[in-house]
Specification:
Helix content: 55-70%
Order of helices and strands: HHH
Shape: elongated
Number of helices: 3
Distance between the termini: 61 Å
Number of strands: 0
Structural class: mainly alpha
Strand content: under 5%
Length: about 55
């Protein structure tokens, strides 16, 4: 049983975000989609330093 758990953990650890998986119902894909959205929002908005440079 420990070997089966280790295999499952290795599969989850190797999972990456893929746009076609964003509507899947499993917890891993949902978490990756949410994290991806947060990172994209952050980079699209820029930082406060960039705002100050524009003034």
């Amino acid at each position: 049983m420990a070997e089966n758990q280790e295999t499952k953990s290795s599969q989850i650890a190797g999972t990456t975000f893929s746009p076609e998986n964003k509507d899947k119902k499993n917890e891993t894909d949902q978490g990756l989609a949410k994290t991806h959205e947060q990172v994209v929002d952050y980079y699209e908005d820029g930082t406060i330093e960039n705002e100050n440079d524009r003034d």
